[in-house]
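Structure first, sequence second, as always.
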């Protein structure tokens, strides 16, 4: 995988706001023997994505990674926006299946197909619904729906990653006017991943990393 890591370190890393978590995702995939299955919700939307520092670039990274593995690995991505789908198809290789439609319905169908050939998802990357931090619930609920729709193709090794979910905490003003963490309020995963995080805790899934993106495995462990 030296070809991929040369690309990641020399070109991609300097353009990624989420460089640390993407690095951890690919290091995780490197440890899996045999081909991998990457499933993403929400695809690349810009025709010249590498010209835009700060974009997630996830679809292009996944495409480059599976092509460098050269072992039959595949990626699947879904987006409800037809313009985004058109752009994505023009940018990725034939190793990436790009579907236009609702992500929950697609995951339900795709995972039936995967189960039929005895495959599980290696990386499930959830990023299909833009978050409004003033009202996080709709996006968080949608990503929990995606997780449950993909459930049949998730095993203990599947890495589930949710984008746009920084930690959330209450702040209180002290006597000196400075803000500090409320010691009676436990910081929680916020944004898109809030409900996935609550579910993960209830079923004793393991948090693999915690950044602006969060990741878990062991859902079916």
């Amino acid at each position: 995988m030296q070809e991929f890591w040369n690309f990641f370190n020399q070109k991609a890393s300097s353009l990624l706001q989420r460089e640390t978590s993407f690095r951890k995702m690919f290091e995780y995939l490197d440890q899996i023997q045999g081909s991998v299955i990457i499933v993403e919700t929400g695809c690349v939307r810009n025709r010249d994505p590498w010209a835009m520092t700060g974009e997630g670039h996830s679809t292009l990274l996944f495409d480059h990674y599976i092509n460098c593995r050269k072992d039959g690995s595949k990626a699947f991505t879904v987006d409800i926006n037809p313009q985004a789908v058109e752009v994505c198809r023009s940018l990725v290789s034939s190793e990436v299946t790009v579907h236009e439609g609702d992500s929950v319905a697609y995951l339900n169908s795709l995972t039936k197909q995967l189960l039929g050939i005895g495959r599980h998802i290696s990386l499930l990357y959830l990023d299909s619904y833009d978050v409004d931090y003033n009202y996080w619930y709709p996006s968080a609920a949608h990503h929990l729906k995606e997780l449950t729709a993909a459930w049949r193709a998730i095993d203990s090794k599947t890495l589930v990653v949710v984008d746009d979910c920084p930690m959330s905490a209450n702040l209180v003003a002290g006597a000196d006017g400075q803000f500090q963490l409320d010691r009676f309020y436990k910081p929680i995963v916020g944004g898109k991943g809030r409900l996935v995080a609550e579910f993960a805790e209830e079923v004793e899934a393991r948090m693999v990393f915690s950044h602006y993106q969060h990741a878990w495995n062991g859902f079916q462990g």
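Margin note: The mean pLDDT is 90.
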